[in-house]
## 1
Amino acid sequence: LDAMPPSQTKNKLTVEHAGRLALTDRAAAVAFAKGQTNPAMRQAAMATIVTTLAADQPHEALTLLKGDTWTNTDVANRTGTGSANLQSAVLKLALHLPEETMQYAESIGNAADGIGNSVRQAAFHGWIETDVTNASAWLAAKPAAERDEQCVASLVSHLSDNDSGQDFAAAAAWAVTLTKKTEHNWHLDQVFKRWHRHDPEGARAGLGM
């Protein structure tokens, strides 16, 4: 890899190597990732290590995540390696440690050069996949002005489109809290259509029609 000139292929191979190495030698994988001189590639490699470890060693993966500094560099914007891999790592980790991962995401805020929102949204998406009840309660406890509307939109979609347990009434109640008119109308329309396919009378009654 060291002998290869910079290219998208080298970037891809570097990230894949970090992930594979993490399966057998976590310390060597971390050393390899931190040895990358390109900031975006270092971030991408570290995020891939976190993703690899998330299922079997979630606490160790979260420690690695907390121990690094994440920024959305110009290189990361161009290649899609830095922040995109971080979001994937956070989402995967949230499937196993949802509340702890969200606490980490919240601690970033918007300090990480604008990627704080996307990290929080990734954590929330993972959380609702595994524990929608507590994820909903966490979001409901926030003042309306502080709620991330992308998180609300994700919750609406999950509640109305999850075949294993739809809750159309709850989806509609969350949809009406969206403040952007286009988002509000689109999500409410989607909830009604899905609800109506399952229970026409309930959908009309639930939405006051």
## 2
Amino acid sequence: GVDTIRIAYDDFQTGALDETLERQYFLLGGQQGDFVRVVQTVTEGDLLPALRILNADFNAISRMADTRAGEAVAYATLPETGWYLIEAGRQRGAGAYTLAPSRLSNAVITPGEQVEGQFTADTPTMAFVFNATIEDRVFATLTAVDDDFQPHLTILDLNLNPLAERQATSRQARTRAVMPRSGPYIIQVHNAGGRQNAAFTLSLRRV
């Protein structure tokens, strides 16, 4: 076994790495289907970070996202409910860092599919993950089942940069985007006003 530090979604921990300690491990609990993003950010020194998400057998289940200097970002869809290891390491250099995991989505949508959902007072915003290929044109439609709320719809990349956004004053918000690279993306749906408990449908298609 390895020494671990427990961490939770939307929490953060700090660490430091050098030639005598090349990696540290953090223990994260999650549910099957969680789409997880972990960010390792250098706060001091010339550390070049390296980051992986591992299952219980120490097999990597993560992929890397494009990042800026001094940062490593890994993401994965958890295959089953349980505990996972986040390996914060270094490619070279030494320094201090922060580590922050977040659950970007706990639902998946595929092109050609329509899903149903329910906004509540506690969850006015929900997120769905989908996979696309570079230059895919995707078209998303968020429809209010009830008339008395305003649907808001955003397509984002893994760094949470908006690629397309639409807020409607009527029952339906539609938006489209051309995918800049192959990989997973996020559709965020939001109840922008009106009744708190409101049903919706979300459809995604490739055009």
## 3
Amino acid sequence: KDATCIIIPDPTQLQAKSVYRQHQLVHLHETCTFVLVDWISAGRLSSGERWQQDSCEVRTEVYVNDALCVVDAQSFQKDLLDMDWGDDTQFHSVCTVFLYNINDAVERFEDLQRKLCETYTAVRHVKDDSKDQDAALHHLLNQQLSSGRVVCGVSTSNAVKVVRLVANNNEDLHRILQHCLEPLELRCYRERITATKSSPPIHVPAKS
């Protein structure tokens, strides 16, 4: 009760011909605070390796007061992930964040989702951008501190928030996660950010 559990690892890097299975089972009390980052990276891109694993399956189950709230299961198929998504876009990182009882961080992820969608929708401003975190997010996205494309979706499953992030490169996700999880006051991933802005995404030719 009244505990805090924060699991924020570096990404799991899938190497060529690897077989990876992961099953996470989480039991929470309704009074606790919880964050789990589950992050998969495409492989050793500088060596031309990209989504060349034989298989990767991850499954996370979250219970609150012994009631099942979330079942998140993903299967990473190399034939799908290795393709180019038009306009030379390649996604090299897939990240899922589970949050419970951390409203400030959830709000930042929702703001990120909204700002990323504004480019493609008729609705441009639905909230007051005068907040400090909105200014910081604007700086992150619009001042080219991030270098590639990022996709973000936020959903709710029985009071547990689930955030899905897909990005061109790990550096962009380091910056985004550091910003969105800043309310935790843990300096999340700050030691991974050593440059003023992210390096350009690496483009790896699709395997024929």
## 4
Amino acid sequence: DSIIKLRRQIAAFFSHSCPELLWAAPWVSKFPMTGRHPRIRVGVAVSRCSALHISEMQRLFMANLDRNRFEVIFFHLHDEPENEYRTRAEAAADKVVLFPWGDLDRFRRIVAREELDVLLHENTISPSLIFAGFARLAPVQCVFFDGVQSNAAPNDDYNFIFGADCCSNETRSQFAEKLVTLSGHPYAPIFPELKHQEISRRDLGVPD
């Protein structure tokens, strides 16, 4: 496919021009290490968790992982405003770790310190997340919530689409990574709580 070929060429250009992008966490080469952690450590890295539709997908994914098997570490930008969406998303994780905007090296080392088994990251406007897939920060890496996009990053193993209904057979060929989908639709909106209020015709400007 010409699109995938172009994206792979672009990724190869970045890798050749800046080999530092291919940095690997030192401990990853030793994986697996028996008994390293009692549960599988899953990291979820996002730029913003205040956008309603994104935060709910993140929250539901993290909240529904079996805690007998998985430990969830949630990474997001340190300057994320305090609001209900951030609070809900953070509450769905076992641990919350903040990272700065635009400091790729610091972001990679922050993630590497957690010794994740699996890293899921957005491919969004944050430079740290766009280039996360060039580095090897966990034995298994997956870009998610990526629509029909794929930056063909050399160390992203999978592309995780929250809803199979969002990805047609035609667009499946647009991914350089191995595609993983969940059944159904990914969006789960929060419906507002509305207080009952009697409204008269006059309130609406309609003659009695």
